[in-house]
Amino acid sequence: MTANFDPRELRVSDAERTHVVSVLQKAIGHGMLNLDEFTARTDRALAAKTRAELNVLLVDLPGVTHRDSDSPLRPRPERINAVMASIHRDGQWRVPRDLLITNRLGSTDLDFSEAIIEHAEVNIELRVSGGSVTILLPERGSVDAQQVTIAAGGLKDKVGVRGGGRPHFVLSGTVTAGSLHLRRASYNRIGRLVIRSPWKLSWDNSD
């Protein structure tokens, strides 16, 4: 008879410890930890022997932690590939915590205004070459695109506010000979008629 084995008791490597420290550094940068908390958790991470000991250091950090209880490493990001093609997502699509957008001579249009977003923070890595990416944030969403490198391309940011809103989108990566357009949905209501900018009409069916 084989005994039940808890994968959380697996031994961790130096690479896993270093990864958790980098996540804690990101958390302090977003104001989720103070300096004393960061120092204490870093000491515990570097001394951790098992996955369970690492997991407990991240479990209360929304947007920078992971869902997999068996590993301190985040799941691989969901990929969106547009190679000489156009990709558009809108409506009530479910948004993962991590997205990787690869765009070569294509266009990617992501409308988050009605999407199902279960995370306080969404991380989007861009690998754009000769293509265009348009991101429409929810009405109260915020964005940080300071980690995006633009080379021979353009950034049109109509959002402006870097933080404070939720969900918060963190963009990173490169845009080479392409364009990145950021904007936020806004709404006007006339009775039950809801007018969204960018242009879209709907009806408010709530009582």
TrEMBL record:
It holds the Pfam family LiaF-like_C. Residues 10-62 form the DUF1707 domain. Residues 91-150 form the Cell wall-active antibiotics response LiaF-like C-terminal domain. It comes from the Bacteria. InterPro entries: DUF1707_SHOCT-like (IPR012551), LiaF-like_C (IPR024425). Signal peptide: none annotated. This is DUF1707 and DUF2154 domain-containing protein.
